[in-house]
Amino acid sequence: HVLLDGSASMDGGTPDKLVFAKRAAAAMAYIGLASYDRVNIAVLQGRTARRFPPVRGTGRVFQVLGDLSGVRPVPGPTDLAAAARHYAAQITQRGPLVLISDLFDPAADRAISELAGTRCDVAVLHTLSPDELDPPVEGDIRLVDRESGEGVDITADLGVLDEYRARLAACQEGLDSVCRKRGVAYAPAAV
Description:
- The chain starts with a strand and ends with a strand.
- The protein is built from 6 helices and 8 strands.
- By secondary structure, it is α/β, with parallel strands linked by helices.
- The protein has helices at 17-34, 61-69, 80-88, 108-116, 130-133, 158-182; strands spanning 2-5, 41-45, 48-51, 96-101, 121-128, 139-144, 151-156, 185-190.
- 39% of the residues lie in helices and 24% in strands.
- The strands form 2 sheets. Strands 3-2-1-4-5-8 form a 6-stranded mixed β-sheet, with helices on both faces.
């Protein structure tokens, strides 16, 4: 099972997070196809998981690439926990399950728990762009949430950027802790 976060927050970064996520999903799907395993791919958007038809065998790699190349971010909010729950309810085959996401959702921990409850071998590839890890900003700026469209004005100085980095590190540590408690592998990845 390869789950790809198709939320609006994945549409950005340099390099683009969604492009990275689609390439990672293709690589993981190919590993399964080369082993002649059944590969299920789904895109988590809104409150649902849009599933592609399951495939098996390396001859299906072009179908997988075609499916993934058509994935576009959906404007508006994504409820990652609800989309994960939607996918989890449809699982009939156990096995490896990889979630590829930036986890920019207040309920990301619940999404991880939903997937861990499937009894699959769950792994989370936490994708962040270099600009999210170390923002190249300074001065007075307006930050706009890609999903809600809400904005906030800030003055980006060294203190604010240090606080941001500390909060991001705490968030990653919290997600890692949730994953460890649920038996989920957690791998942060700078794209």
